[in-house]
Each structure stands twice: as C-alpha cells, then as structure tokens.
Amino acid sequence: MTNARAFAALSDPTRRQVFERLSDGPRAVGELAYGLPVSRPAVSQHLKVLKEAGLVTDRAEGTRRVYQIDPHGLGQIRAWFDRFWDQALTAFAAEAERAEREGHDDQ
Amino acid sequence: MTNARAFAALSDPTRRQVFERLSDGPRAVGELAYGLPVSRPAVSQHLKVLKEAGLVTDRAEGTRRVYQIDPHGLGQIRAWFDRFWDQALTAFAAEAERAEREGHDDQ
DNA sequence: CCCGTGCGTTAGTCATAGCTTACCGTAAGC
DNA sequence: GCTTACGGTAAGCTATGACTAACGCACGGG
Predict the structure, then answer these.
(1) Which pLDDT value is given to residue A107?
(2) Nearest to B16 among A7, A26, A77 (CB)
C-alpha cells in the first residue's frame, strides 16, 4: 500500500497537531513550533516525515521555510478510507442480515 | 481527541492487515493469524489494541473468539477525516486565490 | 472425566521512534 | 563583511511497542 507512510505519519499525536495547524493555512516552522510542547528541531523532523509521506509541501521564503498541506497526498488517504468504509459497511450489513435470517438464536 | 487511540491502532502495518481482513466479514483469531507472518499471540495482542480503540468488537463462539469491525468506531475516524479534509481544502483554495490576487510574483 | 483445541496473558528481548542538545549552512540588516 | 534570525542535520538517550516462548484457562468431544 502506497499510503502506509501517510498512516504512520498521522499516527503520532504531536505530528498530527502540526498537521492540523497547517489545515488553517501555510505556516513557517517557527510559527508551528511556537506553543507546541516540543522543540523546534523536533517540529522540523516531524515536517520531514510529513513531507516524505506526501502530506505537505515546502517552499523557501527568504530565510524562512513555509510548509503547506498537499491536497493530493491527503486525498489518497481519504480515497483509501472511503473504499474501506464502504467495504466494511457492506460486510457488516450482510453479516447482520445473515444473523437475522438464521434466527435470533444464531448459530 | 478521542480517536487518538484509533489512529495509533491503525498505524502499525500488521495491525492494519488484520483490520483489513476483518473488512471482509467476521473472523476468528486463528483464521486471521493464518497466512500472516506473525504468531497467533501477536494477532491476539493486535486485536486487543483494536478493541480498546473501539474499532472492533468480539464475541465468544464456543471455544473460538470471533472478531468483527465496529462501524461506530470506524465512523468516528471518518468523521474526523471529513472535517479535516474540508478545512484543508478550503484553506488551500483561499491561499491559492490570495497568491493569485497578489500577483504571480507573489509576496 | 480426561484430553485436545482455541485464545488470552505474562515475561522478556530487541528494534524503532521521538526528543533534546549542539552544530552548521544560508539569507537578510546594519 | 560581520552579525543575527531561521531552520535543517547529527549524535545520543530513553521510552515505547511489536514479537516470541511459555503458561493458564475454558469449552467441547470421546
């Protein structure tokens, strides 16, 4: 699966916090780090992971580095999730109906 | 965030494999473990995590233990994803428009 | 009543990931 | 050109988590 990296990236709470802050719009590293319980290098490392997962893009802006959410990468996860969601619900409904058809005592 | 556990649960590749197998329908532990590169106790532990995350439910069936996806828990993640998706896309569009309005040379 | 089967649990090992501190490159300001 | 912000990188520590092996428990069949 291609989005294994993306899932792993979103698994860490701190990294998710960084990512959620980016959902408001583009931010520089310092801005993201400010208010977070971790140091700036830590945020930098998180951003690197997010970038390698295809979830964010970055561009230089003077001496600062601005990060932004990459809708494409985010869309891929959403697509996977939608497929999974449908499949799971279908199976669940089928199972519920099967149990009903076989009587309430099941088995 | 309530679904932090759920995200952490889905972060592990093996655990995601187990979870994906459950999307086909209810399965016993042995069935799930069969064909996976890990031992049965490992699968058992993974299922425990998934259960505590509210992603699966289990019921006893004789001496076997049948696991099934819990649509409710899965729905919570999906809800989070949907909110996030909307917010990120909105911000991205706004940013794109802002860049356009300020001229192609930006800044 | 005993034995086999199917799972959960515990103990212990090993790898990985997140964090900090320190350092280095780079772009602007005086 | 020197200094000051800003941020990526390296090294090292620590904690957490995934896995196996060994054990214990409940159910069902003979």
Answers:
(1) 38
(2) A7
The C-alpha atoms of residue B80 and residue B86 are separated, in whole angstroms, by 10
Of A10, A13, A25, the CB nearest to B91: A25
| Best residue of B3, B7, B18 to probe chain A, by most A CBs closer than 10 Å | B7
Q: Which two tokens stand for residue B93?
A: 């569009």
B4-99 CATH = 1.10.10.10
**pLDDT at residue B81 in the model:** 87
> Which residues on A lie below 8 Å from B77 (Cβ)?
81
Residue B93 in this model has a pLDDT that exceeds 80: yes
Please report, for residues A9, A28, A44, B12, B64, the alpha-carbon distance to residue A5 in angstroms, rounded to integers and kept in the order given.
6, 23, 17, 10, 34
Q: What is the CATH number of domain A4-101?
A: 1.10.10.10
Contact A84 B8 (CB under 8 A): no
